[in-house]
Write a structure and sequence with these properties.
- The protein has 126 residues and is α+β, with helices and mostly antiparallel strands.
- The chain has a single domain, classed as Cytidine Deaminase, domain 2 (3-Layer(aba) Sandwich).
- Helix content is 25%, strand content 29%.
- Strands 1, 2, 3, 4, 5 and 6 form a six-stranded mixed β-sheet that branches.
- Strand 5 and strand 6 form a beta hairpin.
- The two termini are 22 Å apart.
- Bound molecules: zinc ion.
- The site of zinc ion has 7 residues, from helix 2 and helix 3.
Length: 126
Amino acid sequence: MRNEIFHYLKIAAEAAKRGEPRNFYLGCVGIRNDGAMVFSNNTKTQQPLIETHAEFKIAKRLTPESTLYVARILRNGSFALAKPCKLCFRTLRARGVETIFYTICDGEYGRINVSEVDLKQYKYRQ
Ligand SMILES: [Zn+2]
């Protein structure tokens, strides 16, 4: 299970690196309930717009019961915290996404069982 999760987090990191260079890259891969795999990455911008977030961009292409893997990768190749922000989380939940895995640091990931989360308690940081 753990190896499978890192496998997909690495795919998400590859998707992230297809974005424009910046201090970090953020990307995600979604496995839909029909088995299709979809990808997204952050859009570089000076504006703090939700539309630039990889998780927000991928949401409309996900199906209920999807699993989402989100990776933040630094320029030195290390994983960093990629927990979705509250707005992205709310959007993914409305879409029916079941499980979200995200990088925390090298060798460590977090898991969110979406339906079990109290939105009021949801925090971007650990
Ligand atoms: Zn977000």
